[in-house]
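With this grant's support, we have settled on a layout for protein records. An illustrative entry appears below exactly as we store it:
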Amino acid sequence: MRSDHRGVGRREFLAGSVGSLLALGTSGLAPLAGQARWDPRRKVLFMCIDGFGPQYLAQSEMPNLKEMIRAGMYVEGRGVIPSVTNVNNACLITGSMPAENGITGNYYYDRTTREGSFMESPEFLLRPTLLDEARRRGIRSAFVTSKAKLLFLSHGADFAVSAESPEADMTRIVGPAQDVYSPDINYWSLRAARHFLGEAGCQLVYLSTTDYMMHTYPPEDERSQLHLRTLDELLGRIANDHAGLELYLTADHGMSAKTDAIDVGRFMRDNGIGGEAVPIIRDRYIVHHDNLGGACYVYLDRESDLERMEDILRALPGIEEIHRRDTAAREFELQAARIGDLFILGGPSVVFGDIDEPREQVAIRSHGSRHESTVPIVCYGRRVDASAYRRSMDLSRNFEWET
């Protein structure tokens, strides 16, 4: 268990830049107004259920969450496009769009060096987090994630732990680490969140699960329903522990069945166009999705190839949208320096990635496009104005620090 945010491997310059940003009030989070008035008995849980599209909620037996919805607020809102994990968790925990926080995908391609890296290092994040604001106010917080890759978002937390690779003291408290490709890893994360809100004395916890089960099973499958019913039981235990619990729950994206895969890179090479096609979903968890997702950045070695590349893409059935970099940055509020020359989005059944042929039939469940951007937004335990919640990040943007 990490009891200080520096234990997550933060760069020193990042700590300094975050402090400066907080002082300038440039975060999307509501600024500090006067003396903080936080009731020490107040317990807050931010919960991002990975891949939890509205269909999963509608078709699953989740009596505790559904009772919270009846007693609180529920809207079906939008996440951020591209609808992938790193982007939407970054937006939620900072209350800002990718143009501000810098997280534009799961993977980053450096056009200068022509090398890529996973977008999960602290230096990529350009805005302070909800947990930074909690620390500034003297509020004890924890960050819990099933996927270790999200630890880079834990800046400011008093405790940061991944169910994928917990330290020894957490395994003694919560139990042994679980397989990341199983439902059990999410149960571990819920138990850890319960520990931090209870015995560890945290007042605010940010919790993010993993979507292996959603990638593997549709909402009506009994294995999916067992997974969500168990998560609901564990959430109910947390609510029973704290009569005044506040829950702010959403998803980073939904999930769709995909049948048509396109390898944009092969079409580039076959037409003599140099560059790189990067499926925005690309990360370490290839069992989930084979790095096939509904959105793609296209980086070109030569600007003169731009129009020809657009013509090639327009001729491919299933590509729904093609945006040049500046247009994409404006329309989707992305940071232009961190996206490709082209941003493409697939239709409901289409994914992009590296495959054996230029185009293949597949049978997977994945995300990344507009078609997985509808998400549930739940507020429970505090009266809110539902009209102010249209995007998942509104949960943090509208969060009221003072009681």
Notes: Residues 257-366 form a domain with the Gyrase A; domain 2 fold (CATH 3.30.1360.110). The mean pLDDT is 92.
